[in-house]
Amino acid sequence: xxxxxxxxxxxxxxxETTAERRTRAAIADRARHITTERDAIFASHLDRLLxxxxxxxxxxxxxxxxxxxxxxxxxxxxxxxxxxxxxxTRGLKRHEVLARGPDGQPLYxxxxxxSPATFKSMGLELLRLSGYLSPAELENRNARAMVKNAA
Length: 151
What we know:
The protein is mainly α. Helix content is 41%, strand content 5%. The chain has a two-stranded antiparallel sheet with strand order 1-2. Residues 1-8 have low confidence and may be disordered.
């Protein structure tokens, strides 16, 4: 016997096509998350980048390193579809100190890398999201100079 699946355009009793059902199922699957050791490792690395108070509690302020007081970051590496974005997004949204500030807003900026992915395009996106400058000011200034002066 040969079993055949319905044509992607065939409608079910609910009037929903197979393609629509598959799309709905894929969206529902994305909302599911199984916590793994990788989540804990990311959280640990994130915690090490933050300052602590006298009692050892985390503060929503970057730890500074070396004589020039540089901050550090985390690099997450995996293949396409490996869960890098999900790991970082969930880690920040669930972080005890960074998830919500006094006003209820997150204490981090979340940005998608614009295309083309250049220093200027990313700098402009971060300035736009932070409200550092108005859209008109963003158009009239050099992004590299703005980012350098903001630091």
